[in-house]
Amino acid sequence: MTRVALFQATSGIDPAANARSLTGAIEQASAGGAEMLFTPEMTGLLDRDSSRAAKVLRVQDEDEVLAAATEAAARHRIWVHIGSLAVLVGDGKVANRSFVIDREGNVRGTYDKLHLFDVDLPTGESWRESNTYSPGAGVTLLNGTPVGKFGLTICYDLRFPGLFARLAESDADVIAVPAAFTVPTGKAHWHVLLRARAIEAGLFVIAAAQVGHHEDGRNTYGHSLVVDPWGEVLLDMGDERGVGFAEIDLKRISEVRSRIPALNHRRPIPDAVTL
């Protein structure tokens, strides 16, 4: 069994304050016996005011939240998956980038969000991630983590099952889905999509989420989840901030896949024929 921790945060517009919250969560996760901590999308900065956010954005090597996390991971001897940070990239835009940090404080891998969320919601909310962010160009899997072979996604990627299929076909044991889901879409789709992705891929899904009312005016859904390969919810953190814990048993993957070996039965899908 592997003990994991999830940090359900209400990140704000000040990276220094967010860094303090993150390092506190790292300390709490380690004290609670977790081997790895998972944090939400935009752990370091959540601000829809692009002009204000631009004043505190930095390139990866100068990001204060990443620096604080690597130091804390080494001090407390725990792996940390930062769900994502907004970091400046060479094309003048920003990457929504995940980081995996080992217990020595080394960044072992990164992933840039592939799918960008551009939508006008019935509530009147409008989101245009492509105005600010550059999409990622690759799929990331890491060996040697406390949760086995570890696949990375971010938030809106959840709605694209082909990405999860690719990770499953590459023998992932766990897929992370850090998120900052809106309340309406969270209520409608969060649980059902995460359970579906876990069931389809026959693996564990760990989804740390933002929660509550944020300084920039938005509201996020929370309900950080750990889902096993059968679709059973092992942890649901509801709408409270803080650190939660779950135990995962990687042997569960082979047990479930032996009962429903869907991955072994996949065939190339031919082009559709319109009749």
Secondary-structure blueprint:
Layout: E1 2-8, H1 15-31, E2 36-38, H2 50-54, E3 58-59, H3 64-76, E4 79-88, E5 94-101, E6 107-112, E7 118-120, E8 126-128, E9 141-145, E10 148-152, H4 161-169, E11 174-176, H5 183-201, E12 204-207, E13 211-213, E14 219-221, E15 225-227, E16 233-236, E17 242-248, H6 251-259
Parallel strand pairs: 1-2, 2-4, 3-4, 10-11, 11-12
Antiparallel strand pairs: 1-17, 4-5, 5-6, 7-8, 9-10, 12-15, 13-14, 15-16
Task: Walk me through this protein's architecture.
With 275 residues, this protein is of the alpha/beta class. It has one domain: Nitrilase/N-carbamoyl-D-aminoacid amidohydrolase. It contains 6 helices and 17 strands. The chain has helices spanning 15-31, 50-54, 64-76, 161-169, 183-201, 251-259; strands spanning 2-8, 36-38, 58-59, 79-88, 94-101, 107-112, 118-120, 126-128, 141-145, 148-152, 174-176, 204-207, 211-213, 219-221, 225-227, 233-236, 242-248. Strands 1, 2, 3, 4, 5, 6 and 17 form a 7-stranded mixed sheet that branches. A 6-stranded mixed sheet has the order 9-10-11-12-15-16, covered by helices on one side. A hairpin with a 5-residue loop joins strand 13 and strand 14 (219-221). It is globular and about 50 Å long. The N and C termini lie far apart (52 Å). The model has no long low-confidence stretch (mean pLDDT 93).
